[in-house]
Design brief:
By secondary structure, this protein is of the alpha+beta class. It has a single domain, classed as Winged helix-like DNA-binding domain superfamily/Winged helix DNA-binding domain (Arc Repressor Mutant, subunit A), CATH 1.10.10. Helices cover 64% and strands 13% of the residues. The protein contains four helices and five strands. The strands form two sheets. The protein has a three-stranded antiparallel sheet. The protein has a two-stranded antiparallel ribbon with strand order 4-5. A hairpin with a 4-residue loop joins strand 4 and strand 5. The longest helix has 51 residues. The termini are far apart.
Length: 124
């Protein structure tokens, strides 16, 4: 009887460890997919800022024919991942500049397609 109880205890402990490990894998996969999603959505912003240099959010929005609010959301996400940084604009007190970071430049190397601002599409 004791061996059956011990086996059950070991089995429960083993299952608990598998559940914890499974949750860790799910969390890592979720973080990875979030990062990939942010990168693909913000690729155009990264490429534009890399090509033109630091720009304001309204400037990026105008260039992309997008709303300022949508660009601000993208910039905030990219900044959370360290791909862009918001820096002081010497020409305007309230409208900061968005600049690509070294990490953002490195991440751009992983994208197979390039954003064509004139066509408004990715081309390979």
């Amino acid at each position: 009887m004791d061996s059956a109880f011990d086996s059950r205890g070991l089995l429960n402990e083993f299952c608990s460890e598998i559940i914890v490990f499974s949750n860790q894998i799910k969390k890592a996969a979720l973080n990875s997919s979030r990062a990939q999603s942010v990168l693909s959505v913000g690729q155009a912003v990264l490429e534009l800022v890399e090509e033109r240099g630091p720009m304001t959010v309204p400037g990026i929005a105008a260039e992309r024919s997008s709303s300022r609010q949508n660009v601000q959301i993208m910039v905030n996400r990219l900044a959370r991942f360290g791909l862009v940084e918001v820096v002081t604009n010497p020409n305007h007190k309230r409208s900061s500049l968005v600049a690509i970071t070294a990490k953002g430049q490195a991440e751009l190397q992983h994208f197979p397609a390039q954003w064509d601002p004139k066509l408004g599409i990715h081309v390979t």
